[in-house]
């Protein structure tokens, strides 16, 4: 009987801990995310959607911009999952690589700009909680995470672009 009582207490304890975590989010990160999302939407409205679109077109012309600046700005301004819509400015052969770069940047951006991928903030938040417990500063981690993310999305974008073009050519030759 005592076993069942302990099991029931442990079971409900899981939900109590979950509730405490939820309250922590409500009083911690959620207000920050709401403010950040509101600020970014206001910034887009001030800049103008047409200018944001024009920047997308400019970035699509150069592979360095296409796989660094465009995914970064897309994730910052449009957030996950809307960021992928900036691929509409790209030729078909570049769209898979842009998507690969943008989706690969979902987590590296959260350290500096948690609004960009609020639904998956827990990944960075878990690492950050461990470092905070150890008394470490989160700033250097967030900056390194961001920089490494930019390098990775550039490499992934270039490789994916080359593979896409190769497979598209192979497909064209097979249809002839």
UniProtKB/TrEMBL annotation:
A GO cellular component annotation in the UniProt record: membrane
Leader sequence segment: none
Keyword tRNA processing: no
BP GO annotations: phosphoenolpyruvate-dependent sugar phosphotransferase system
KW Transmembrane helix (keyword) present: yes
TM region positions: 22-44, 64-84, 141-159
Top-level taxon in the UniProt lineage: Bacteria
Keyword vocabulary terms for this entry: Membrane, Transmembrane, Transmembrane helix
Protein name in UniProt: PTS glucitol/sorbitol transporter subunit IIC
Biological source species: Eubacterium callanderi
Organism lineage string: Bacteria, Bacillati, Bacillota, Clostridia, Eubacteriales
